[in-house]
Design goal:
single chain; mainly alpha; Helicase, Ruva Protein, domain 3; 6 helices; about 70% helix
């Protein structure tokens, strides 16, 4: 039963990430053309860069969550999970909260920047905890996040 709680944490976070990814896709699809008509080139480039930042964060988050789900399902080993391909890229573009208060950026995009940054930072903390446990040969323990739950990878 405790493993189910921890898995539910991952599942809930995954569902949240999928929903945010769909929201970003819809936002960009609708607003990108309107922004191009309304803004001058330099502002369009700046807004486009922020679209890219949100997308990069979500790609990182979804990759990590899919790898974690695969680890929990026994589809990949702890050694595979700790490979660089599943590590979050700690780049300035993903970890910085720049842009969230920039009034040159549309309000809706600022909201997406804020939410994607919070999600990315949450996953970064989980990644640090999981990798430390796996590096020590231990099973990750999510007790501090969801009660007495322990993630079982066996």
């Amino acid at each position: 039963m405790p493993a189910a709680k921890a898995t539910n944490l991952i599942d809930r976070t995954f569902d949240e990430s999928v929903a945010l990814t769909q929201e970003v896709r819809n936002y960009i699809a609708y607003h990108e053309q309107a922004d191009r008509r309304e803004f001058e080139l330099s502002r369009c480039l700046h807004v486009g860069y922020q679209h890219t930042r949100v997308s990069a964060r979500l790609i990182q988050v979804m990759t990590w969550l899919l790898a974690m789900k695969a680890l929990l399902a026994g589809e990949i080993s702890p050694e595979q999970f700790t490979a660089p391909q599943y590590a979050l890229t700690d780049s300035e573009e993903c970890s910085s909260d720049k842009g969230e208060d920039d009034e040159q950026i549309p309000v809706g995009l600022r909201d997406l920047l804020t939410r994607s940054h919070a999600l990315y930072e949450r996953i970064k903390r989980l990644d640090t905890m999981v990798r430390a446990k796996l590096d020590a040969g231990e099973v990750p323990n999510f007790a501090m996040l969801s009660g007495p739950a322990v993630i079982s990878i066996n």
